[in-house]
Design a protein that fits this description.
The chain has one helix and 21 strands. The N and C termini lie far apart (65 Å). A hairpin with a 2-residue loop joins strand 13 (150-154) and strand 14. It has two domains: 10-130, Metal Binding Protein, Guanine Nucleotide Exchange Factor, Chain A, CATH 2.170.150; 141-249, Beta Complex (Metal Binding Protein, Guanine Nucleotide Exchange Factor, Chain A). By secondary structure, the chain is mainly β. The strands form five sheets. A seven-stranded antiparallel sheet has the order 12-15-16-20-19-18-17, with no helix packed on it. A four-stranded antiparallel sheet has the order 3-2-10-11, with no helix packed on it. The protein has a four-stranded antiparallel sheet with strand order 6-7-8-9, with no helix packed on it. 2% of the residues lie in helices and 49% in strands.
Amino acid sequence: MSLQSKANPAAEAEHRVEIVPTAKRVRVMFGGETVADSTGVLIIRETRHMPVYYFPPEDVRRDLLSPTDHHTHCPYKGDASYWTVRAGGHEAENAVWSYPEPLSDVAGLSGYLAFYWDRMDAWYEEDEQVFVHPRDPFVRIDVLESRRRVRVVLGGETVADTTHALFLFETGHRPRYYIPTEDVRTDLLHLSSKRTGCPYKGFARYWSVSAGGRVFEDVVWSYPDPSREVARIKERLCFYEERVDSVLVARSE
């Protein structure tokens, strides 16, 4: 007897696809060519997905695109067609997609084209390069000074203790505490090879910590050259709260 999965009505109701126009000029580079350049981009915000730029067809270099036989189906947007990009002797297969006849809830996507982020060479908003994925227009980051005491315990040892942390509040995330290096037991830290990127903060490097006779991998990070909006966190150290014994934050000074 075969079993068929049934749609979960609650999950269906919770899934949202939102179309948000942006006035920013957005450009996509590949193979030394500008393959898309538009001030009429739509940002798609979808449950459990990163934001995606969709470009009006007239703002895409269609001469650099070749249609393919690849097609996919999305239960929330419809059937997608794909194109391969060729420019400057380089090729990105099935790197562009569009919904020619999208479902009624997202009818505004009709004909617009999207690009796989990591298959292109570079992305720009106005004249500033954007990394990792498009910035969500509804994400806000506040960096605030605080004299509340923050103490980090790892392996039974206090590895950081400060009243000079910067508290970083980012939409949809738990608060993070960026601590001056002089208030951290840096003698316990070992630089690792891990690196990550954030479209709002920049690129982070990581450290592991030796404490209590154990090694805790990649539990500390720092932004050596953060984005202008969060420049104050430069070189400060932040602990991965979910992977340490505790991060104790006083309720008041």
